[in-house]
Write a structure and sequence with these properties.
- This protein is mostly helical.
- The chain has one domain.
- Helices cover 66% and strands 0% of the residues.
- It is built from ten helices and no strands.
- 38% of the residues are buried.
């Protein structure tokens, strides 16, 4: 985010560069609240190697979660660079309405969740007895549905109420970046799991013990999503605020400290 903001918004003051980067950084944290370890496990767990249906379902879940994750990043990056002004009251209103949609989305898409009675949501991308009926599983609660509802609400608000073109467009680019980035990254790790012996005895044999395949997934994910986000920001560069005085989220120090306290409490 820092590189992108410096490159595309060099006309901004240091404080507004910091605000744009901070917004994007906070947004990245939203994705961390989604459980995805077991989703990736559907594509690479030893008991599921050879199960094409589980691989396909795991990659679908990876695409959805990645899209939501980086969709938030794109939206918040666009907010920081687009120049639309948001008042403190407006920010607080959006915050609390978004929280409502998070709970609504979880209720609609991520319920029921009662592992003790083997009751899981209809659309579920973590450990499931459907894939491993004889295993002792510890399914994780998913909340991607809540984040999807919140992201959808924010998208419609910035698009139709605020008419924030950059934030709207960067949300769409973020959806693409996260979906393809996370999925392609996991394909690297899944390919290793499915072809471990061939890789271990192939041209990578000498360095194989030193390769961390989880890190390979993360690096690939980051590289792909960064490339797509950068491409999207370049394509929408004419929507970036040209006047630093018009940068969004111009709040007083008291308002900023208040939002910081709310953010910490919410975490």
């Amino acid at each position: 985010a820092l590189v992108l903001v410096y490159f595309f918004a060099h006309q901004f003051s240091s404080i507004n560069i910091a605000k744009a980067v901070a917004l994007a950084t906070v947004a990245i944290g939203f994705g961390g609240s989604m459980t995805y370890g077991q989703t990736l496990g559907l594509t690479q767990d030893s008991s599921l190697i050879g199960n094409i249906a589980a691989l396909r379902w795991g990659l679908i879940g990876t695409f959805i979660k990645g899209s939501i994750w980086i969709g938030f990043f794109g939206l918040f990056l666009g907010l920081g660079l687009g120049g639309k002004k948001y008042s403190l009251f407006e920010i607080l209103l959006i915050l609390f309405v978004s929280i409502f949609f998070i709970y609504l989305g979880i209720y609609i898409l991520n319920e029921p969740f009662d592992p003790g009675n083997k009751q899981l949501p209809f659309i579920y991308f973590s450990d499931d007895w459907y894939w491993e009926p004889g295993e002792k599983l510890i399914p994780r609660r998913e909340q991607w549905g809540g984040l999807l509802f919140a992201l959808t609400f924010l998208y419609f608000y910035i698009s139709f109420i605020k008419k924030d073109i950059l934030a709207r467009n960067m949300t769409l680019w973020g959806l693409l970046a996260g979906g393809f980035g996370f999925t392609i990254g996991q394909c690297v790790q899944a390919y290793h799991a499915w072809n471990m012996d061939d890789i271990k005895n192939g041209i990578l044999s000498s360095i194989y013990p030193y390769i961390n395949w989880w890190n390979m997934m993360e690096i690939t994910f980051g590289a792909v999503f960064a490339f797509i986000i950068a491409l999207g920001l370049w394509y929408n560069r004419h929507h970036i605020s040209s006047n630093d005085d018009n940068n969004s989220l111009q709040l007083g120090i008291k308002a900023e400290l208040g939002l910081l306290v709310i953010h910490i409490v919410a975490l």
